[in-house]
Write a structure and sequence with these properties.
heterodimer; A: 224 residues; mainly alpha; 6 helices; 78% helix; B: 235 residues
Chain lengths: 224, 235
């Protein structure tokens, strides 16, 4: 079963991305107002969604670790935190290109953009903290605290930037999105999610193996 | 055998908090090195922002609130780091842990002492900012004091927790701002906006909203950091 998942998951994810992107780049019609630039949503939206999911998993796993010292939860938090930064950065770069094409600016103080920036930079600090702390117990507890604090701030960020940005328009394209575009986006989101699950499983195994090795090491002998 | 020592109950939370505040403020007062150095660093930061913008007084007056809070924020990293560096020296943190004091008292004491210090810093910086940027202050004094205090408290709650973590890690000077700044973005937005309205006037009546945001930020992080601090200093 495990081998079937290991083999099938990447195959399914890559096939989904190939099909989804062919549909998105060639078959789906151009958007009425944005033209071809809009096609970037077929990678941008799935990447942003996966990044958010990843941060959510990292926060939930961190919460679990603080309540019952579970090393599996710690390893999962490490894996999810890293993948969140990866996919978040991808979503960011693609979003900036889209923003330049449609609104004429690379960046704008929008709640979604700012919240994502805080999460990406916050979890970059989280990764740095994990890399700089050797002791497994301390590393796990401290990084869990950092992840929970980051997650708790998101609602505040949302309101702060909403008020700050003033009359910022909502980038909804729902009225101009036909059923085929919706299906194409759905396939891409699904394929990216599968890709993410595959990445997460692999990264989790590495993290868990590293922690198991650290915990099994005999305590260092003090030099006389 | 029950000695009077064993029967002694742990110190109450309030007594513990007061003891930690007194200890920190006394240490500051005895040397005054951190206070002096940080205040001058803040002035210098302010000056550098003004050089970076150039001599346009109109832009300077418009962005004065932003410079003020960035100067406080950058100085806070120094003073927060210092407040735990002295605990890391001579294993003073171990000593504090051995005392019959709740880690919550340690957090509250440290965070309140840091808030008082940052508030003092902001109070000193305001007249300098106003004079250098040519701001004509429109808001009331009471409201100004409240905003400065809320801003200082907002930096201190996560700042104290993260300084406690960073002080026990290699490369703590890089780590503290890296952990702290992303979390503080909404607080900085709120404090800058509110201060700007106090400087330039508030025709739309938006001040209450930004004050509420700062209060909400403080309530969330003081509570959360209080609950989590025990996990950061435990052995």
């Amino acid at each position: 079963m495990k081998r079937a998942i290991d083999f099938g998951l990447p195959l399914l994810a890559i096939a989904g991305i190939v099909v989804g992107e062919i549909m998105g780049l060639w078959i789906a019609p151009a958007e009425r107002h944005m033209g071809d630039v809009y096609r970037i949503i077929y990678v941008h939206v799935p990447a942003a969604w996966v990044a958010l999911l990843s941060f959510l998993i990292a926060a939930a796993a961190s919460f679990t670790f603080l309540f019952k010292t579970s090393w599996a939860a710690d390893a999962l938090a490490e894996a999810a935190g890293e993948l969140g930064v990866l996919f978040g950065t991808v979503a960011y770069i693609l979003g900036a290109i889209w923003g330049k094409g449609t609104w004429g600016v690379w960046w704008t103080p929008d709640p979604k953009l700012t919240a994502m920036a805080i999460l990406v930079f916050g979890f970059a600090g989280y990764i740095a903290l994990r890399n700089l702390t050797e002791e497994p117990e301390r590393r796990a507890a401290w990084s869990a605290v950092v992840a929970i604090i980051l997650a708790a701030g998101i609602p505040i960020v949302w309101f702060a930037v909403r008020w700050w940005g003033g009359l910022h328009q909502n980038q909804s394209t729902r009225d101009s999105m036909n059923a085929f575009m919706g299906a194409t986006l759905g396939i891409n989101v699904l394929a990216f999610t599968l890709l993410f699950v595959w990445f997460l499983r692999m990264r989790y195994r590495v993290a868990k193996a590293k922690i198991d090795e650290e915990l099994s090491e005999p305590p260092e002998q003090e030099l006389a | 055998m029950t000695s009077s020592f064993a029967e002694r109950r742990p110190a109450s939370l309030v007594a513990g908090v007061r003891a930690v505040i007194n200890k920190d403020l006394l240490l500051e007062w005895r040397s005054r090195a951190r206070v002096n150095a940080t205040i001058f660093f803040a002035f210098l930061t302010l000056l550098l922002f003004l050089f970076a913008v150039g001599p346009d007084t109109h832009i300077m007056a418009q962005s004065a609130a932003g410079y003020l809070w960035l100067a406080v924020l950058l100085s806070s990293v120094l003073s927060l780091g210092e407040s735990f560096r002295m605990e890391a020296e001579n294993a003073a943190l171990e000593g504090l842990r051995l005392l019959p004091v709740d880690p919550k008292a340690m957090f509250l004491g440290k965070a309140i002492a840091n808030t008082l210090f940052l508030f003092l810093l902001a109070v000193i910086l305001v007249p300098v900012t106003v004079a250098m940027c040519g701001v004509e202050v429109q808001g009331s004094l009471m409201h100004g004091v409240a905003i400065l205090f809320l801003g200082a408290a907002a930096i201190s709650a996560p700042g104290t927790l993260y300084a406690a973590i960073a002080s026990q890690v290699r490369a703590r000077d890089v780590l503290l701002p890296l952990l702290l700044f992303p979390v503080l973005i909404p607080a900085i937005i709120g404090a800058v906006k509110a201060t700007k309205l106090l400087f330039a006037g508030d025709p739309m009546g938006d001040l209450g909203r930004w004050t509420a945001l700062l209060i909400f930020f403080n309530a969330t992080y003081w509570l959360l950091c209080l609950l989590l601090f025990g996990r950061v200093v435990e052995e």
